[in-house]
TrEMBL record:
This is Dehydrogenase. GO terms for molecular function: nucleotide binding. Residues 3-124 form the Gfo/Idh/MocA-like oxidoreductase N-terminal domain. Signal peptide: none annotated. Residues 143-265 form the GFO/IDH/MocA-like oxidoreductase domain. It holds the Pfam family GFO_IDH_MocA. InterPro entries: Gfo/Idh/MocA-like_OxRdtase_N, Gfo/Idh/MocA_Oxidoreductase, GFO_IDH_MocA-like_dom, NAD(P)-bd_dom_sf.
Length: 344
């Protein structure tokens, strides 16, 4: 049996809990406990999980801190689903206890915090495993695009365009104030929402070698002190550049877009992948359906990433989406902020 726990019983924790319950019998996972700094929140979450299964009382325990969890239970994998400024401290605490970690994105609220974890892993290469939750790499569209890029069939890439145009309400921030507070989140749209797309862009096109951009708070300035809108110009090590636009000020969620203008095709990633070959063929790859209670615009692939992580726990090599991989998108987001600050 592999004993699992979740720390941070908020919105995204539901998606992790659903995945654990779905994978439990297949992968021999025992979902042992949940932790929240607010014990009552943890207790309610644990009770809710029990109620979702059969009618018997939940066997999942609730704790108010990580030290208490580690003192009382033997945990093999800890899912960290807390706010951004609470990622690194909790991850290091788990690794110190020999516990493997699945950490929600972004890696950290600030680069120096993220670097602490990377330094620790460099000094302890044979320690427990750690994944960072960039689940959208498992989407059908992402996997197919990565495959096409690897095959060379698309030819040279002339350029890329990407957008994240979503909606938010003031309540999204007032209910969970950390989301709109620079000190806790380290940023707004770029750090919390568009970071997935920044991760995909650098995975497809290579690390960013030059980043310029601006950020602004266009709609929610009276509620938050982070940006709700951004644009950026990103040059990748491949030489390709991306024009990026993102905003949370729209009245509805549009699909995230990544468009690659290639020698042999125009490739459109937007709720699935469409490849418009220059010879007239059109290939379509449909995305999987969203079956979780999690919100569909988060992507549908949390369970696939979590499955992959548990299946590879015994492998020698580190998990493929670890802190180093996750540092690249954090770097891009922070470079956009620096560029924006310089041009003001
Ligand atoms: N991968 C995705 O698609 C995705 C989607 C949504 C959220 N997220 C990420 O998940 C994380 C959580 O987001 P959310 O919207 O669920 O947050 P939330 O505010 O809904 O929940 C966070 C919970 O963590 C608890 N908490 C805070 N500090 C703690 C600590 N030190 N110890 C224990 N518990 C603590 C809070 O009490 C709260 O219950 C963020 O990093 C966010 O970026 C990822």
């Amino acid at each position: 049996m592999t004993n699992a726990a979740i720390v941070g019983c908020g919105d995204v924790a539901t998606v992790h809990a659903e995945a654990l319950e779905a994978l439990a019998s297949d992968l021999g996972i025992k979902f042992v406990a949940v932790v929240d700094k607010d014990l009552e929140t943890a207790e309610k979450f644990a009770t809710g999980l029990g109620a979702a299964g059969d009618s018997s009382e939940s066997s999942i325990k609730a704790y108010g801190s990580l030290p208490t969890l580690f003192a009382k239970e033997k945990i093999d994998v800890l899912h960290i689903t807390t706010p951004h400024d609470q990622h690194i401290g909790l991850a290091l605490e788990a690794l110190h206890h020999g516990v493997n970690v699945i950490l929600e994105k972004p890696l950290a609220n600030e680069l120096d915090q993220a670097q602490r974890l990377i330094d620790y892993l460099d000094e302890n290469p044979d320690g427990p495993k750690i994944a960072v939750c960039y689940q959208n790499r498992y989407n059908v569209s992402s996997q197919e695009l990565r495959r096409l890029l690897d095959s060379g069939e698309l030819g040279a890439i002339n350029g890329a365009y990407s957008s994240v145009v979503w909606t938010r309400t003031p309540g999204y921030y007032t209910q969970k104030p950390w989301r709109g507070q620079q000190a806790h989140s380290g940023g707004g749209l770029l750090m919390n929402q568009a970071i997935h797309t920044l991760d995909l862009l650098q995975w497809f096109l290579g690390e960013a070698t030059e980043v310029k951009g601006t950020v602004s708070t266009d709609k929610y300035a009276d509620v938050i002190d982070v940006e709700d809108t951004a644009h950026a110009y990103i040059r990748h090590e491949s030489g390709v550049h991306t024009s990026f636009y993102g905003t949370l000020t729209n009245s509805r969620h549009r699909h995230v877009e990544i468009e690659l203008d290639c020698e042999n095709a125009l490739v459109e990633l937007r709720d699935g992948l469409v490849v418009n070959w220059t010879d007239g063929r059109v290939e379509r790859f449909e995305e999987r359906n969203q079956e979780s209670e999690g919100r569909s615009y988060w992507g549908v692939s949390h369970e696939l990433l979590i499955r992959d992580f548990y299946e590879k726990l015994g492998d020698q090599e580190p998990f493929w989406i670890g802190p180093r991989e996750a540092m690249s998108s954090l770097d891009i987001a922070k470079s956009i902020y620096s560029s924006s600050a310089e041009t003001r």
